[in-house]
Specification:
This protein is of the alpha+beta class. Helices cover 28% and strands 36% of the residues. The protein is rod-shaped and about 140 Å long.
Length: 400
Amino acid sequence: MIRKRTLEAAWALSAIVILALATSGCKRSAHAPQMVPPEVMVMDVVQKDVPIYGDWIGTLDGMVNAQIHAQVSGYLMAQCYQEGTLVHKGDLLFQIDQRPFQAALDKANGQMAEAQANLDMTAINVKRYTPLAKNNAISQQELDNAIQSNKGNQAALESAQAAVQQAELNLGFTKITSPIDGIVGIAEAQIGDLVGPNTVELTAISTVDPIKAYFPISEQEYMKAMEKRITQDSEHVIHRTNNLELVLANGNTYPHKGTIVLADRQVNIKTGTILLVGLFPNPENILRPGQYAHIRFVIQMYNGALLVPQRAVTEIQGTYHVVVVDKNNRASIRTVQMGERSGAFWIVKQGLNAGERLVVEGAQKVREGTIVSPKPYQPDADKTSVTGTNVPVPGAISTP
């Protein structure tokens, strides 16, 4: 009997403990803290007019390139210019030994004087024999011989005069001068070298202000440009003057804009491209032939384009998604259609409206319908270079 009461008391105590624990658990669950909304960085969708740029790779070349060769054979006596400097037309570059050519000129002058003396003598004979032949004092044959001899001496004099002119030219060719204004290159021949028409070029000169930029475009791009030009599309700006931009190898944009001046006469059948030529002013002589040229110019304007940072866009199997936050801070995942890119920005063709808030950082924390804690995004890291310097907003879009 006593044992039975002891067991009943034990069961009652266990029931009280279990009830107390259950009550305590319910109390703790009722006061458990709720989830904190995830913090995300958001920015408004920007709307603005955006120029669309085409990009091509080319090379720079001189407006005029002159290869300097010796026109007569001789020993190089002097180099009369400083390499890599600006020279003007007529400036002396090299001096070839003049002595053999001066001697040849002196000889030619002597031969011309001799030919002149012979001509003078035969002219006197013709003048003397003419009346004598009329009076039958001498035969007609003697007069004819004198006339023919005079004509021969006249031809000999003209030949001697030509030899003098050639000798004078050869003597002048010993002074090698610049045929153009431009930057002169490093000398390929040294003082004391035997140079001539069949030897290597002495140096080269290039006119670099303005300077040419050669760049190929595809046949499709060329035909599209021609169609725009024929229809006089007012939105098409490919043929506007001063529209070319030149991005240098260091990433900076050249401060002077260029102009397309011509297209080559034919399409390259191997590459399917046609070569365009642009001209850039180069008053400081910074640009040089052979330099890398990244050419870009506006081919279209997007009016009222919607721009978002590329980092805000997620691609899944060819479909693009963004996370939009409404006025109640509720996130929703939206499918969008994207257009051209530029640096850190992207044009949205469909799926967004101007002014909507977009999650730029923290999208991985968000699910459909999640309440978020939005913070303004500072786009300092997304500055994009469009003119050689960083700007805080996208201003130029490149075709992919």
